[in-house]
């Protein structure tokens, strides 16, 4: 293994170590560099070969969390192409992400309204990326104007993130009802957006 490959492998180990220690009781702010280094199997001093400080690691975690979510939703759109329901498949995929990666999604929720301006901005960028991809999909599938597609995408993302937050603290037996409720709400939103678009064109 080359030195560059080893460095990248260690960097990934640090990221995974930090994610693994997040929980409902433990936020990123409460993590220590020593804890992360120990979990990653490296000396604390080695941490600085990969990140300037814990803040840089935290921002990287936000980027990684957003990327994971966007990649998963791209996979959902591939599932939709195999004759799946757009909204149902998307929400089921999202719920799989939240319940299977609760520490990752919890990071996004916490830092979205956290005390660090840099972290809030990073999460906002990830949500904007997520909304932009959804808006592009809506424009392609419904041929609606750019402005309406963006507004609809932002509303849908807000609703879905709210459901994700509810799912984090809900018992598993409530996941199905949460999913069903959100599917219905998103369908109302989609029908309303379509109706608004037609009326706006007429006016």
UniProtKB/TrEMBL annotation:
Keyword annotations of the record: DNA-binding, Transcription, Transcription regulation
Presence of keyword NADP: no
Protein's UniProt keywords contain Transcription: yes
Pfam families named in the record: TetR_C_46, TetR_N
DNA-binding region: 32-51
Gene3D superfamilies: Homeodomain-like, Tetracycline Repressor, domain 2
GO molecular function annotation: DNA binding
InterPro entries from the UniProt entry: DesT_TetR_C, DNA-bd_HTH_TetR-type_CS, Homeodomain-like_sf, HTH_TetR, HTH_transcr_repressor_FabR
Occurrences of domain HTH tetR-type (ranges): 8-69
NCBIfam families listed in its UniProt record: PRK11202.1
PANTHER family in alphabetical order: HTH-TYPE TRANSCRIPTIONAL REPRESSOR FABR
Protein name, per record: Transcriptional regulator, TetR family
UniProt organism field: Arsukibacterium tuosuense
């Amino acid at each position: 293994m080359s030195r560059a490959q080893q460095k990248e492998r260690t960097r990934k180990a640090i990221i995974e170590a930090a994610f693994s220690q997040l929980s409902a009781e433990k936020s990123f702010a409460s993590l220590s560099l020593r804890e992360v280094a120990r979990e990653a199997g490296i000396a604390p001093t080695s941490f600085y070969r990969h990140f300037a400080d814990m803040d840089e690691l935290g921002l990287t975690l936000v980027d990684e969390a957003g990327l994971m979510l966007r990649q998963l939703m791209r996979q959902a759109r591939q599932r939709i192409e195999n004759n799946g329901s757009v909204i149902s498949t998307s929400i089921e995929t999202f719920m799989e992400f939240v319940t299977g990666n609760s520490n990752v999604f919890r990071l996004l929720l916490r830092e979205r309204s956290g005390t660090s301006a840099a972290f809030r901005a990073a999460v906002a960028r990830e949500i904007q990326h997520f909304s932009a991809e959804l808006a592009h999909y809506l424009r392609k599938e419904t041929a609606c104007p750019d402005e309406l597609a963006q507004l609809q995408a932002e509303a849908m993302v807000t609703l879905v993130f709210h459901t994700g937050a509810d799912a984090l603290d809900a018992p598993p037996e409530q996941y199905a009802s949460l999913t069903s409720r959100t599917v219905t709400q998103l369908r109302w939103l989609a029908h309303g957006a379509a109706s608004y678009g037609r009326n706006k064109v007429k006016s």
